[in-house]
Structure formats: C-alpha cells, structure tokens
Amino acid sequence: MANRIQSQKLRYLCLVSLFISIELLMKFSGLGNIPINPFLNVTLMNIPVAIGAILLGPAAGAILGAAFGLTSFIQPMSGLISSLFAIDPVNTVIMCVGMRMLMGLCVGWIFRLLAKVDKAKIFSYFAASFCAALLNTVFFMGYLVLAFYGADIIQEQVAAKGAFNWFHFVILFVGINGILELVSTTIIGGGVSKGVDYALNRKSASERKNNQ
How far is 62 from 102, CA to CA, in rounded Å? Predict the structure, then answer.
C-alpha cells in the first residue's frame, strides 16, 4: 500500500513537472502566443493548464495556472504587460498569475463536478476545456478593467476602439482572438485530455491486474 501511494505521488509530481515544461517550451518556442498586434496575442498557453487540471485535479490546475502566469514575465513580454507592470507591478502580477491560478483551480473543480454527471465522460473533457479559455478571458479582462481601466494606456485603447464603456471595450478588445482561443482550447484540450486520461487509466488497470 505504501509503495502504491509513493508511486502515485511520484507520477503526480512527474506529470505536473511535464506540463510546466510544456508551458515553458511553448513560451520560448513562440508556439504559446500568436501575436495579433503589439498589445494583443491569441494564447494557447491555457491548453496545458486545462489538460493538467482535468487529469490531475484543482491543485495541479492552480500550480499550472501560476506557471502560465509567470511566463508572462519572461522576455519577450507583451507590450501591454510590460506597460502595465511599469504602472503597477503588484496588480499586474495578481492579474497575470493570480487570475490564472484561479482559472486552473476552477477548471479542475468544474471537471470533477461534470464527471459526476457525465458518467461516460463524453462531454466533460471538452466542456472543462471550454471553461478554461472562457475563465482565462473573464478573470484576466475582469481584473484588467478593475485595476487598470483608468490608466492612460487603457484609455488610449478605449478611445482608439471607440468603446462606449468598459463592457464594450472588453468585447472589442477580446474580439476574434477570444473566439479562436475558445475553439482551439476546447478542441485540443478536450481531445488530448480525454485520450491521455484513457491511456493512463488503462495502464493503471493493467498494473493492478498484474499485481493481483
């Protein structure tokens, strides 16, 4: 029993480390962010967070969300993040790291709740992955508006986009890239997490059978 628990802990740590490595690889290779303009990227960095939260649970989701957020401060930083960091470092860290931690935590719990209803696990992987992209946008943009809406750099964007209020600004700011993030995270995150979960459970079942 003790050896089995140690084995499970080791596998958990290895998988968390693997997902963090994937996030770093995506960041440094440029695959994690597709630039739309100097201030906005389509991010794929939430995909490893979604998969990790689904496979490993809320705590792992929070850890991976924090890793995702910290990559925002690895050079090259986006024009928006670097400008906001110069204005208010604390709120920028909360926005980038804290909100991504919250996203990963929520996705892990959402999947667990959905899996109780979706016994066959047909839609829960994709629904949780969809929530990862949605919550990433909602939490990030919500905190951006809350902490920085009055900043000159944001007001310049408001004026440039012709936004009437903060809600209109969020819609215009997110735009097509938000839709692309939702689609890509839902399809890739849902498909990969379902396939990996099936493979891991099948392997575990085989190991238990061999040990009997």
Answer: 6
DSSP-assigned letter for residue 119 = T
Q: For the CA atoms of 60, 64, 69, 73, what is the dihedral angle to 10 degrees?
A: 130
- Asked if residue 204 is part of any domain, the answer here is yes
- Give whole-number Cα distances, 129 to 106, 123, 189, 199, in Å: 11, 10, 5, 19
Phi/psi of residue 38, nearest 5 degrees:
-60, -20
The Cα–Cα gap between 106 and 199 comes to 24
In this prediction, residue 148 carries a pLDDT of: 95
Question: pTM of the full predicted structure?
Answer: 0.87
Does the residue 38 lie in any domain? no
Of 12-21, 138-147, 172-181, the range with the lowest mean pLDDT is: 172-181
Angle at which helices 46-56 and 124-148 cross, to 10°: 130
Long-range Cβ pairs for the range 174-178 (8 Å, 24+): 174/137, 174/141, 177/36, 177/40, 177/41, 177/42, 178/133, 178/137
> Structurally, how many domains does the chain consist of?
1
User: Residues 107-121: pLDDT tens digits?
Assistant: 999 999 999 998 877
Q: For the chain, where are the E strands, in sequence order?
A: 33-37, 40-43
